[in-house]
């Protein structure tokens, strides 16, 4: 389980980016990968899954 911060999230379009606390890498997140609603600057936990263009955040929950 990774920990990070929501850097950007557009609830109308259903996507955003999470910055990993350890690596400082940013990962794409789609609304389908959320376990609960998130907003910008929320602290979250997440898993990573290989997507079409790299790793995506899934199973995203507020920390």
TrEMBL record:
Keywords, in A-Z order: Cytoplasm
What Pfam family is a match for this entry?
Answer: CSD
Q: Where is the CSD domain?
A: 1-62
**Entry's Gene Ontology cellular component terms:** cytosol
**Highest taxon of source:** Bacteria
- One Gene Ontology term of the molecular function aspect: nucleic acid binding
Cytoplasm recorded as keyword: yes
Q: What is its main location?
A: cytoplasm
Compartments where located: Cytoplasm
- InterPro entries, sorted: Cold_shock_CspA (IPR012156), Cold_shock_domain (IPR050181), CSD (IPR011129), CSP_DNA-bd (IPR002059), NA-bd_OB-fold (IPR012340)
The answer to whether keyword Cytoplasm applies is yes
Entry protein name = Cold-shock protein
């Amino acid at each position: 389980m990774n920990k990070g911060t929501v850097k950007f999230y557009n609830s109308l379009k259903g996507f955003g980016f999470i910055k990993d606390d350890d690596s400082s890498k940013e990962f794409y997140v789609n609304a389908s990968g959320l376990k609960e609603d998130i907003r910008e600057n929320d602290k979250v936990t997440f898993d990573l899954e290989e997507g079409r263009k790299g790793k995506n955040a899934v199973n995203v929950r507020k920390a």
